Amino acid sequence: ADVDPGSLRTPIVAVLGHVDHGKTSLLDKIRGSAVSEGEAGAITQHIGATAVPLDTVSSMAGDLVMADDFDLPGLLFIDTPGHHSFSTLRARGGALADIAVLVVDVNDGFQPQTEEALDILRRTGTPFVVAANKVDTTPGWNPKPDSPVKQTYDAQSDRARQRLDENLYEIIGQLSDAGFSADLYWRVQNFQGNIGVVPVSAMTGEGVPDLLAVLMGLSQRYMKNEMEIDLGGPGKGTVLEVKDEKGFGATLDVVLYDGTVTEGDRIVVGGVEGPIVTEVRALLRPRALSEIRTEQEFERLDSVQAASGVKLAAPDLDDAMAGAPVRVVRGRPLEDVIEEVEAELSEIEVETAEQGVVVKADTLGSLEAMANALQEAEIPILRAEVGDIAPRDVAVASTANEAENRVILGFNVDVLPDAERELDRQDVRLFNHDVIYQLVEDYEEFVEERQR
Ligand code: GTP
Ligand code: MG
């Protein structure tokens, strides 16, 4: 390795896919294998992220990853919970993730959230691989636990292999329909123009070595320049979630993708009413599982370096928005940093019309994805905001002349009790869903029915 690994940050890998297709199981398998390899201590459980150091990747991937061939410090995986859109993971007008794993159940193939994830990967230009998961469920499958996929694939009966092939080619066809040229990963020569499909099982670990190898290869080959950052510089991150925590009040779960954040740092965070300026009181990371039972849930850190997931406690965070930027001020004029945050927030500002629907979404990223989908479907937006559905939203929607516009489209949000009452009183239709496509479809159906 010709570059000092200390100067490169860990690539951020988003794990996405439809509900129940096995995202968390896949990460569990990686964590679990690390434990059985005697590397348990090396894996750190972050807030919303899991860091796997290079040595661990290398020992799990066997011959497929030689640590000496890589300069990167490892991989930081971000799991995206089922109902949570990948669009939360947003930074600098693109994807927060450097690369992604799109998990697809080999039997189920493409599902709505698979399509949604693909849309966002396309829009943000994020390189990705497809993990065709649950190969062990192929009828007649004879598992070879934790082995590279080519070994287990070649060892199957013709019948089992044919059945798997049918499913794999179905997925490859679906990727192609979506505009991505794809093939089984061992046939892919150029990962820049082609998507590799890696057959895996989160249950038996088959193919997991290959998946890790492809991810390391992708990061190393195409991302290296982006990984050369000033790790000591002022931290930059994205809010994954705003959560109330006992003893701390509102806290932020943040993925830090650049620089360092230190206790006492002054920070600027995107909030509902504009940038929030506050000071870091505590940096928290979950303790290992065994410690949680006996001690406090969190360990306090003095300082955290990119890339990592961290919980950040500070005053005045109630209005902070998921998906919003976080910036450490350190050594720069506060005004400049506020302007930076404002600029990033305004990138996401949705184009609105005089007449249109009201849109509410759980995060800035999902709001942006919603706005894009609605624009494509030529559905005008009157107002779009992050947050639960409040009486004010019902009031705004109720002023529209056309029934088509007396509508609220909610993505992954709750309806506040007062708003519920208003909805009953007013002639306003609410569509609330956790799949963007579904929302757009439901709304279009409603419009069509009215025109009949
Ligand atoms: P959400 O977070 O809800 O979106 O789901 P997920 O994508 O994280 O899926 P999860 O890992 O929770 O797995 C869903 C179910 O599929 C669980 O019952 C798993 O045990 C099962 N499962 C996941 N991977 C495999 C696999 O490779 N083989 C088999 N047989 N079952 C699997
Ligand atoms: Mg999950």
From TrEMBL:
GTP binds at residues 17-24, 79-83, 133-136. Residues 8-223 form the Tr-type G domain. The keyword Cell cycle does not apply. It comes from the Archaea. Keywords: GTP-binding, Initiation factor, Nucleotide-binding, Protein biosynthesis. Residues 135-154 are annotated as: Disordered. Signal peptide: none annotated. One of its GO terms (molecular function) is GTP binding. Belongs to the TRAFAC class translation factor GTPase superfamily. Classic translation factor GTPase family. IF-2 subfamily. Function in general translation initiation by promoting the binding of the formylmethionine-tRNA to ribosomes. Seems to function along with eIF-2. This is Probable translation initiation factor IF-2. It comes from Halolamina litorea. The chain holds residues 10 to 461 of 604 of the full protein.
